[in-house]
Design a protein that fits this description.
Blueprint: H1 2-10, H2 17-34, H3 39-52, H4 56-79, H5 93-105, H6 111-114, H7 117-137, H8 147-175
Helix pairs in contact: 2-3, 2-5, 3-5, 4-5, 4-8, 7-8
């Protein structure tokens, strides 16, 4: 088994664009559609990623700033009433796992967006709010302010946030500076 994992690590499987995109989407669906019920699958996918990277410690240090910022932003949106996850939960564990997975995409399957920060801003404004809407349609999150108002809030937040996250991800990957 250890030999198999060594072969996978040496081939940088987790750095492959297609592998990362499929892995992220699988985790996203497990978290958003399955939430707490499919949490074991999501945790298994995170463990798989950490098992396959060359250095778990380096990977966690590289991803930590993006995860921390993302969790902080979503927590602020939840506390301010933009999101409601039910049962008094400010931010569910499954959403934190989505942030972990999303952080991996910035230097892998979505890396091309980070080369042009204006493109990241456009993609952030267009795609990310749509994902929150999809989550609301799946019952993962309620939008107490209504869809239109929530989108008006999320569009500028993500137009600014996604380029920032790419910048932080690139900086931590290249320099080892983590904030």
């Amino acid at each position: 088994m250890n030999e198999f994992i060594s072969v996978i690590r040496n081939r940088d499987l987790t750095d492959r664009v297609v592998f990362n995109a499929v892995w992220f989407q699988t985790l996203w669906f497990a978290c958003v559609l399955g939430r707490d019920v499919w949490l074991p699958l999501a945790l298994l996918l995170v463990a798989l990623h950490l098992l396959l990277v060359k250095s778990t410690v380096r990977e966690l240090r590289r991803l930590a700033p993006v995860i921390l910022i993302g969790v902080t932003v979503d927590t602020a949106l939840s506390v301010s009433g933009v999101f409601d996850f039910g049962d008094g939960v400010v931010l569910p564990l499954w959403l934190m796992l989505v942030w972990f997975a999303f952080a991996t995409t910035l230097s892998r399957s979505l890396a091309y967006l980070g080369k042009h920060l204006w493109l990241a801003a456009v993609a952030g404004a267009a795609a990310v709010p749509f994902n929150y809407w999809v989550g609301s349609q799946a019952g993962a999150v309620a939008l107490p302010l209504g869809t239109a108002t929530t989108l008006w809030i999320l569009v500028p937040v993500w137009a600014a946030l996604l380029p920032l996250l790419f910048w932080i991800s690139r900086r931590s990957a290249l320099t080892g500076d983590y904030l």
